[in-house]
Amino acid sequence: MPLLGLSLAALIGLSLGLLGGGGSILTVPILVYVLGFGAKESIAMGLAVVGVTSLFGAVGHWRKGNLQLRAAVVFGAVAMAGTYAGARLSVFVSGAVQLLLFATVMLVAAFFMFRNGRKESAHAPAPHKASFPVMAAAALGVGGLTGLVGVGGGFLIVPALVLLVGLPMKQAVGTSLLVIALNSFVGFAGYLGHVEVPWGWLGLFTAIAVAGILAGTWATHYVSQAALKRAFSVLLVVMGVFILFKNREALGTPGGAHAAPARASSPRAP
Question: What is the pTM of this model?
């Protein structure tokens, strides 16, 4: 279903533009279950798509003064080390296990997104700065998750920037997009040489996602963030449960967690 998959690419950009994250959580399932790419191939492509798309979004926030460059460089530099390590370690993990971890991340993200969507901004904790070791540990954890399962980590980076770095929420969203871009590019580099990248599909998919993030950034003035987060969390639960169901054999079959799943046939490159 190439047409459907390419149409859904715009949804990835919209998510990043409206929420400052969530794009990679949509990218991998679309590439695997709609366009038919293999799990590892999809994770690598997803990192490239989200990296380029987030970079465009970060530029838009920078122009509005909602990007703290120093925080992005410091947090991103530590996170990138974890991302590259996670990407290199992924060669020792089967595609089925990666998808199971991915689904678990989706369900955790859905919980926090739904909870945050119910809270008013007035109840948000006051920003404060944590010690560098605590911030570095959080950045390494986010980076490792990005490299291993192909999520940009926006749903983790935004609260980390608020609670550990001390940024206001608007600046945290803009800054997170640059950190996501840096993480994603490093993660993608870690997969090069281990997976075959269909560059034609990657370029087309990315271009549509970029158009989506431009539209999403423009629409932030007209959409209720709280309602959007609640709706998105429901979508994440549905997709997470679906991925767990599709890869249930890796949970129930002895040795299944170590057996690589049959590779889905890839669409013909445009």
Answer: 0.71
